[in-house]
Each structure stands twice: as C-alpha cells, then as structure tokens.
C-alpha cells in the first residue's frame, strides 16, 4: 500500500498504477495539480532499469491486487473499497504530443524508482538481517548440538565397539568354559559308568557272599544239631559207661574188696549196696548200726528203687531213713538227699502220714515200709522195733 501510492503534485510527477509499471509507451503522464493516482508512461527508459523497478514493484502490486480481490470478493467490505478509490481520479488517456517536461519527469520517476528500490532493499535487509542473525544463531546452536550429538554417537559407537569386543571375548571365554565343562562332564559320566560297573560287581560279590553266608549258617545249624545229638549220645554213653563201671564193681564183689561185703550180707543193685537185717532195733539204733558200716538207713528216690526194696522185704516192716523228728510235718532224708513230696507221694499208704501219737511211745516221726507194693510207707513211733535196710553207694564201698 505504501509503495503503491506515488503522488503527483504541481510538477506533474509520474506515478504507478497498482496493476503494473508501463515503460514501453510514448504517452506522457496525465496529471493535475491535485493529488491523484495516475499511470506512468516512460518512453525511452532503459528496459533493464525498469525491469529492476518492475521486479521490486511487482511484489507490491501482487499484494495490492490480492487485497483488491479480497475486497472485491467480500460484499461487506464495499465501504473499504470506496474509501480506497474515493481519493483517486480516473486515469484519462493523454492526447497530443510529448510533454515538454518529459526529461524532468523521467528523471523524477527514475529517482523515485531508485529511492523506492533502495528503500525496499534497506527494508528487506532490515527485516532479513535479524532473521538471518537468528537463523545464524540457531544454525550455530544446532551445529553445536549436532556436534555434541555426533560426539555422543561416536562415544556410544566406541563404547558399543568396546562392549562388543568385550562381549566377543566373554563369549569366547564362555565357549571355552562350556567346552571344558562338557569335557569334564564326559569324564564324570565315564567315571560314573565305571563306578556303577564297580558297584554292580560289588553288589554281585555281596550277593555271592550272602549266599555263602546263608549256606554257612545252614551248615552251622546242621552241625549244631549234630553236636546236640552227639552231646545226647555222649550223655547216653556216659550213663552206659557208669553202668558198665557198676557192673565191674559188682564183679569185684566176687573178686577183691567187694567180696567181703557180699559175704557179710550186702546185696548190690543199680550202683548201690543194700543190707537187709534179720534182727529188730529202734529207728535210732538201726541208724547207728548203718553208720558203723559207713552207710545210712536207705533213702528211696525212684519208683524202680521202691519196687525193688518192696520185693526184697517181702511185706516185712523195715526202717527207712525218712523222719520228721527235727520239725513235725517236715520230712527229710538223714543222708542229705532232698525229699520231694511230688515224687514220693505215691509211696505212702493211703491216709499216711498222720500226726497221731501212739501212747507212751510218743509221736509217730519215723517211717517204715512193710507192704510188698509201691504204696508201702507208714509213719510210726521211732521207739518201735523193726528190721532195717542200710544203703551204701558203690564208689563209697570200693573206696
């Protein structure tokens, strides 16, 4: 707007039309002394110079036309259009010859164009320099940022390169370790297999030893059974040997020391000599006689012995060694043989022993046998007179 208005006052100065700068016609510039907008015709002006002016004013004309088209297209801005063109006079075509003041007008127009051009250049420079300075500063800052970024990238790249190198080395070390571990694992596997083979061998050997041990235990049990049998056989043999020795001793009754006992009325039976008296004595007197013969009244410890003596006495009463004189009801054998009620209970006559007294003879504390049967014992007074039986062991007689 500012560059588009060129006033022509008094001297007929040329001016620009908003459309374009016309420099190729011979016409002059119609003007009045009043202010108005007119077209400029500059005949003979160098096209190059005008071209420069035209380039500068072209931008202004384009802006003016844009404003004009904007106002033209907007009916609401008709008042603005009238305000713009209200002060402008219609451009009239000129008639007649050249203006006698054409050179001055040309110089004035050229000066105006040069001033406008210079002003435009200065204005453009004034506007552009801060922008250029700002762009320069921004460019410098961006350049520094780019350099910093480049350095950072280079640092990262170097770091990445270092890390990659270290990673490669670490990977190599890991691979070596893995190979070593795999090798060691193979060795361990081989050792495990060897150990398992040894374990299997030891297990098999253990089973063999266990089998042998079981066989030995079985053999030991068999030997123990044989040993028990041999022990029993030994005991039987010992019993037989004792019996043989008794037989030998009985034979000595006829040959040697025992011959005297046999001639004195002693009878041998099952390892013992027995003396059966023919006269009668009290129990104490009979015991005293037996002791004088290095013996005692006979004790009876088995059924076989009881039956043998019953047969020999033929139902006649004879004293035996059993008595309770020291403690009533407590029966005992004088020679120290243990009395067993369970073993000797069947040898008593039914109802015996009893605790009755026999008048002046006193308590019945001594035992006689008089029945020719197993149950032949009775307790009577010790002062009664009876036959008696003395008993001496074979070895005792020989010694």
UniProtKB/TrEMBL annotation:
- Gene designation: LOC112551595
Q: Which Pfam family is one of this chain's hits?
A: Lectin_C
InterPro entries listed in its UniProt record: C-type_lectin-like, C-type_lectin-like/link_sf, C-type_lectin/snaclec_domain, C-type_lectin_CS, CD209-like_CTLD, CTDL_fold
Keyword match Membrane: yes
Q: Which GO terms describe its molecular function?
A: carbohydrate binding
Q: Which keywords does this chain's UniProt record carry? A: Coiled coil, Disulfide bond, Lectin, Membrane, Transmembrane, Transmembrane helix
Q: Which residues form a coiled coil?
A: 185-247
> What stretches pass through the bilayer?
116-137
Q: Which organism is it from?
A: Alligator sinensis
Superkingdom in the source lineage: Eukaryota
Record's protein name: C-type lectin domain family 4 member K-like
Span of domain C-type lectin: 269-391
